[in-house]
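pipeline stage [seq->struct] | target=LD-carboxypeptidase | organism=Thermosulfurimonas marina | residues=289
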Amino acid sequence: MGKVLGRLRPGARVRVVAPAGAVEKEALAPGLKILKDWGLRVEVDPGVFEKKGYLAGEDRSRAEALLRAAEEAEVLWAARGGYGSARLLPLLAPRLPEKFPPLLGFSDLSALLNLLAQRGLPVWHAPTVCFLPRLSPEALSETRALLFGEKALVFEGLGLSPGKTQGPVFGGNLATLSALLGTPYFPSLRGALLFLEDLREPLYRLDRYLTHLRLSGVLDEVAGILLGDLGLPEGEILPLVKEVLPREKPCGLFPYLGHKPALTAFPLGVWARLEVAGDRARWSFEIDD
């Protein structure tokens, strides 16, 4: 059984941080309202609107803001993705405390989420604050229920390769993870369930990223593969997946998990089960709360 750390609660003190791309006030405001409507006490870190080109300020400033926020808030929620999280890894890795509030985000934030999850710290692969208003009303309601522990963490999808397996869940954005391969910050995936999603990448680049993972031996180590939305129609994605991914590994497709209005939330670093039979896949977290 796994234990989900970092469930939200009404009145929790949430600090909105910007570890990656530059943030516009107008883009952030609707998401802040949603969090406040959920009964959360929301604070925006003073450095969120800093800019250095496409980044939300200098690397060291963003890293210091994240560490400071971890001491002062109960929850850290990324304003947006974009790019820049990986640049903070060598600044944060030596200084991470043993206790860290849950960090929520996805996409480029995958670099930070996996670093924390490998240390046993609580993280959620969840919509960023700027992405929350893009969710459908149903997905927004489900996201809140999942984060507050009011709904079981179970996801239904399309079966691609049959089998039953289990392990801790790691992963996130395919391009981000592929770029970390060969660095000290790529997560250990032996016996893990690997989740992958991406956006706006042409098919040949997705092929490149997946082939990179395959040639490195990473895909031989995982227990199973969880595919989210990869940004292209299934008719283009499925032939590539069947050609590149190891067929002996259980694999399911969950096309609503990605940069889509149906995106919800799930924890990383927590034990889960994948069951694939025929054209059906079921991914569930065995939670001991």
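stage status: PASS
auto-comment: The mean pLDDT is 96. The longest strand covers residues 163-173.
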